[in-house]
User: Fold Carbonic anhydrase from Anthostomella pinea.
Amino acid sequence: MLKGRLGCSLLSSTRRTFITRVTVTHQQAPRSLSLARYSSQSGSNSGSNNSSSTGRKDSWRTMAESDISRYLQETHDRVFDHNRAWAAEQSKNDPEFFTKLSAGQSPDYLWIGCSDSRIPAEQITGLEPGEAFVHRNIANLVVNTDLNVMSVINYAVRHLQVKHIVVCGHYGCGGVKAAMTPKDLGLLNPWLRNIRDVYRLHEKELDAISDETARYDRLVELSVVEQCRNVIKTAAVQQSYAKNQFPIVHGWVFGFGDGLLKDLKVDHEAMLHGIQKIYNLTE
Assistant:
């Protein structure tokens, strides 16, 4: 029943309308000049000849100081231009929108996703403000010693009483690829070790995949499943589920190639029973 309601919620016409409104709003807002344009302007001013293959990172090196300042100011101002356009559009479509938004939140979803800037939770799901409580970190990890994510889960479950917890990864995750890089990554080492531990747990399956991209994609999926297990290990989730039959934990993966979410079909109840021999915190 919960899975059915989740599907209906995400596919409702209200959500599709919201996506359309967001798209229109962003089109109305002024667009900024690209780094490439600034770079070419600076290049012509300084007399330097830049290769068309110069990357975004290298573009800064060819920009005059005045162009860098102008670019930074413009990208700052663009956010406020978009914000004003968005606020005006919301008020136009619903004069009571901000009054209702100010009244409080009661989201059905807790979204635990990757910090990657290309995966805005509300936009890819069609959820509106107030419908998702969102936490993001590198590689969407749920680590029991991370007070940030543990606090988010506790608050979302005990106080907001969310009905669904979604752990959402994405194919081509830089964090997953970095974890498989045989080098010292400094401060990232202890964080990415959690992904390396996932590889260790599923080493036989992963090593049997000869294609490197397919192996990385499978590791992304396996890591999401392990993070779902870590969510279910928490006292807040176990106790709420025992009392209320929610929240349900889901594992999804986003694909950049088609923009679609893949449901990994995590069996919440089976996973819960599987871990409670050791991690039972319902008492």
Residues 1-103 form one domain. The first helix runs from residue 2 to 11.
